[in-house]
Design goal:
about 350 residues, 60s Ribosomal Protein L30, Chain: A, Phosphoribosyl-aminoimidazole Synthetase, Chain A, domain 2, six-stranded mixed β-sheet, 12 helices, 12 strands, about 35% helix, globular
Length: about 350
């Protein structure tokens, strides 16, 4: 062997010390998300959470998982990782409330080519901010260093959220009736879906720079607009469910597949919907993508939320009360349609 040094983990691409430093940096950030039910602290082999069996006498746990897609690539190109954690929380918890569940806690998974403690801290700080907005605990997580497999600057994130709903209180297609109103909740930006098309249009076709103004006549950069964090709807809907028992029949989180594709998941056989989105403005980012990419209307509606991040299907005649509640929570909301008979479950826009 001569003078050849022995192989080490660090030499192969995994820096244990950097990983330990990252954990130390995020301990207080994670602790800032604690809520009633959390038992113990970060660092164990599992996170513990106690269900309130006074509030939930017959609790049903609801689980969901998601990521933020290729929005991560925009964050990498801009070297800004402070908002994608908020997106991660939104993508997870806003699925849970579509079953009527109150989100309780989230676990995160961060995969990197090489651990940069400051970058991990920035990502987790964003996740913690999302958790505080969503009123959930960041119960634990994992940072995995994939040296030799991922590039040194590569990063991806995933989240796993758990919520709870009282048995028999679940919302969904089984509650929807003809004549129900559709209340749309506004999304000021892309959130975390459709970024492969958005990146293709802005960077491959239009050759735009992240430092340029997002649109003509504004000072906001394209990076600012593309990294705009997702609105988190869960707390407002949880509050609405609590004070308006039986009013909300179903909900649809508008992600990949657009309004029609996701609303169909909240409708039973034999019912469809007539949609009129005019009550909620279409954010300029979508108009810019369509203009620069010559994207057809049908394709835009199939890929993006087009300014509607969530739809609540509510009892006929209750939409004004629901809209008022959502607006008092700081959300743009408007009636955007009604549930109608449809043998094929058609959704017309």
């Amino acid at each position: 062997m001569g003078n050849e040094q022995g192989a080490t983990y660090a030499g192969a691409g995994v820096d244990i010390e950097a990983g330990d430093e990252a954990v130390e940096r995020i301990k207080n950030v994670v602790a800032s998300t604690n809520r009633p039910g959390v038992l113990g602290a970060i660092g164990g082999f599992g996170g513990l959470f106690e269900i309130d069996t006074e509030k939930y006498r017959h609790p049903v746990l609801v689980a969901g998982t998601d990521g933020v897609g290729t929005k991560v690539d925009v964050a990498r190109a801009a070297d800004r990782y402070d908002t994608i954690g908020i997106d991660l929380v939104a993508m997870c918890v806003d699925d849970l409330i579509c079953v009527g569940a109150e989100p309780l806690f989230l676990l995160d998974y961060i995969a990197v080519g090489a651990v940069d403690p400051s970058r991990i801290e920035e990502v987790v700080t964003g996740i913690a901010e999302g958790c505080r907005q969503a009123r959930i605990a960041l119960l634990g997580g994992e940072t995995a260093e994939h040296g030799g497999v991922m590039g040194a600057h590569d990063l991806d994130v995933a989240g796993f959220a758990i919520g709870v709903v009282e048995k028999g209180k679940e919302i969904g297609p089984h509650r929807v009736r003809e004549g129900d109103a559709l209340v749309g909740i506004g999304s000021p930006g892309i959130r975390s879906n459709g970024y492969t098309l958005a990146r293709h249009v802005f960077f491959d076709r239009a050759k735009r720079s992240l430092d340029e103004p997002a649109f003509s006549g504004v000072s906001t950069t394209l990076a600012d607009e593309l990294l705009r964090p997702s609105v988190i709807y869960a707390p407002a809907v949880v509050d609405l469910l609590a004070k308006s028992d039986g009013v909300v029949h179903a909900a649809a989180h508008i992600t990949g597949g657009g309004l029609a594709g996701n609303l169909a998941r909240a409708l039973p056989d034999g019912l469809g919907a007539n949609i009129d989105r005019s009550g909620l403005a279409t954010p300029e980012i979508f108009l810019e993508i369509q203009r620069l990419g010559s994207v057809a209307d049908d394709e835009m509606n199939r890929v993006f939320n087009m300014g509607v991040g969530m739809v609540l299907i509510v009892a006929e005649g209750s939409h004004d009360t629901v809209i008022s509640s959502l607006q008092s929570s700081g959300h743009d909301a408007a009636m955007i349609g009604t549930v109608v008979p449809s043998a094929r479950g058609e959704i017309t826009q």
